[in-house]
Fold F420-dependent protein.
Amino acid sequence: MTQFDPRALLSESRLGVLATIKSDGLPQLSPVTPYFDRDAGVIYVSMTEGRAKTVNLRRDPRAALEVTRADGWAWATAEGSVTLIGPGADPHSPEVEALVDYYRAAAGEHPDWDGYRAVMVSDRRVLMKMSVERIYGEALR
């Protein structure tokens, strides 16, 4: 049996649950599509300005992200400090470029970059960059 590596699970997972801290101190959970840059030790998530998770992170830039293996028998959690980039007001702004870089790393080339850029501006998309400070997890089988 090989040893479980929570970093590997984070790297391959494209669905996770992001935990942020509400103003009353309770957790707020959101399903997200993370991308873990294992070499840099950074998790990226695209989100919308004004949503609960974004508001929470602007107030308290700490978060945790949990992913599970498809069969449910392994999980990994990453915790860290967050920086938010955006939203961008121009399709070619540095904030939108950061979202383009995120998309390329997570999913490859987009069939319509001009359309993607326009949507990032109109949707007021923000890129979360979490510097991973701790990773832990377990494989139950």
Notes: Helices lie at 6-12, 52-59, 94-107, 113-122. The chain is about 30% helix and 40% strand. The first strand starts at residue 16 and ends at 21. The two ends are 10 Å apart (CA to CA).
